[in-house]
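Hi, here's the filled form for the chain we discussed.

Project: internal
Contact: R.S.
Residues: 163
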Amino acid sequence: MKRNISTFIVAIIGSAAFGAVAGKLLEAFVLAPIIDRYERKKWLRQTKIEAFSILAEEMLSLGAKRMVSDDPWRFRGLAAKAILLLEDNKLIQEINDFIDELYKINTGISEMVTANLPDDFSVRIPNGKMITKKDIEKGVALSTMEKNALEIAKKLGENLRNA
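And the returned structure, exactly as it came back:
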């Protein structure tokens, strides 16, 4: 009887040890890669949220949030993380075009708006301020840029939802 009890205890201990080893093997070879893929996907999504949020915020403020509207290289530096996370080459080009055009508008070299007004055109508005041809062109161009920023922000959101 004592022999049966000790055999029984050895069998239980052996089964427990085998179960522990089998559990560790299952965890190492099956569960760990699945968990790793999940964690990587979760990290990528969080990184995209952060990068796309910063870029969208800056684009929607037309570069005013971080004072990068007149410096395309600083704006590109800000956009770099988001661009690295994108796989859509067309969207990347739209972001670069947006940055270039915003720089041109803010430095007065934009070709986006051409008015048939004389160069010395100006008009006084009700608050007493004088508005020049350049002010009108810049206002119209920035309005167009705001629409472009909204479209790009929308595409960034779609890209994030598809991640």
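Let me know if anything looks off before we file it.
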